[in-house]
Automatic annotation (TrEMBL):
It comes from the Bacteria. The keyword Transmembrane does not apply. Residues 1-24 form the signal peptide. This is ABC transporter substrate-binding protein. The lineage of its organism: Bacteria, Pseudomonadati, Pseudomonadota, Betaproteobacteria, Burkholderiales. Keywords: Signal. It comes from Undibacterium oligocarboniphilum.
């Protein structure tokens, strides 16, 4: 092989390596985020699957998606039942979860990345149920209560003894989208849930072909106020936590 050909081949190899290096430099986040997962639940209006086109919508979902794009992440947000989403982030590294309630009991078991929302806790029922009167939390024991399984409301009510595991009048359900039809069918008296405002069920009601006025808030549990966060397990590196936090701030 002549020296000219060898030089030409070496030049070609050098150019290819230099090009690949430059491309990698242009996308510094790709390798870091390649195996990272982001999970959440179907929780309108913050993050929910639109039944009309099956796309993920909602204010916090949009912000997280924008941050992921900025970081060079190509994976899609996974929408899981809440209990499974929570177990996934606890069992595996490099899994982020958003709209997780920050509580004293959870403080040291997660890395808290970014606050996504604040919510109150209220009791919702059919407007026609004028017999439902709740002036204190102890009144919840009088009614058939539905909650989202393993969310902060469920856990708080269990801790305070207002409802009991195995109680036939207490219904923890895995998917929020199933709770409203359950309530509308009269299979529960009231739904204890977090909410942003009193009308954040309106869109779900319309999707079901129902008048939003059929549902109303009958009481607030004023001593329970929830801050929601993007968070991750302790196994995830601090570098990823910091980078994701910066991307969320930029996407705000």
């Amino acid at each position: 092989m002549s020296k000219i050909v060898v030089k030409w081949l070496l030049s070609g190899i050098w150019l290819a390596v230099a090009t690949m290096t430059a491309q990698a430099a242009d996308q510094p986040g790709d390798a870091l985020w390649r195996n990272v997962r982001v999970v959440t639940e179907d929780l309108a209006p913050l993050a929910y699957l639109d039944p009309r086109d099956h796309t993920l919508k909602g204010s916090t979902a949009v912000q997280v998606q924008a941050a992921m794009k900025q970081l060079g992440m190509t994976s899609a947000i996974e929408v899981l039942p809440w209990a499974r989403a929570l177990k996934t982030v606890q069992d595996f590294p490099d899994v982020f979860i958003f709209n997780l309630s920050r509580t004293a009991g959870r403080e040291n078991t997660f890395k808290w990345v970014y606050k996504t929302a604040s919510k109150r806790v209220g009791v919702f029922a059919l407007r026609s149920r004028s017999d439902i009167r709740i002036t204190a939390q102890a009144d919840l024991k009088k009614y058939r209560i539905v909650v989202l399984n393993q969310n902060i409301v469920h856990l708080t009510l269990l801790e305070r003894g207002f409802v009991q595991t195995g109680n036939p009048d207490f219904y923890p359900m895995s998917y929020e989208k199933n709770i409203l039809p359950f309530l509308l069918a009269g299979r529960a008296d009231a739904w204890v849930r977090t909410y942003l405002n009193e009308h954040d069920l309106d869109e779900q009601m319309r999707v079901l072909g129902e008048d939003p006025q059929r549902i109303m808030k009958v009481a607030d549990l004023d001593d329970i106020r929830i801050d929601l966060y993007l968070a991750t397990g302790l196994q995830t590196s601090d570098e990823k936590v910091l980078r994701f936090r910066e991307a969320m701030q930029a996407a705000h």
